[in-house]
Amino acid sequence: GDGTQPITELLKDNPESIGFLIGPEGGISEKEIQTAKQNGIKLAELGKRILRTETASGFVLSAISVLLEI
To answer: Does the predicted model carry a pTM greater than 0.70?
Structure first.
């Protein structure tokens, strides 16, 4: 309901550049979600897992690598 898309959908057009924002362990607030959307940031879901802030960036980089290089 928060407008997220699977990361595979966001990467299917093989973007020239990628930046990502990792939210806090407690989750991103509704206000932060709306601010992101207003600034053109697309929201991705990473599956059914809950990741710690410290490990989320490594997971995202690995997913991007797998999805774009294989």
So the answer is: yes
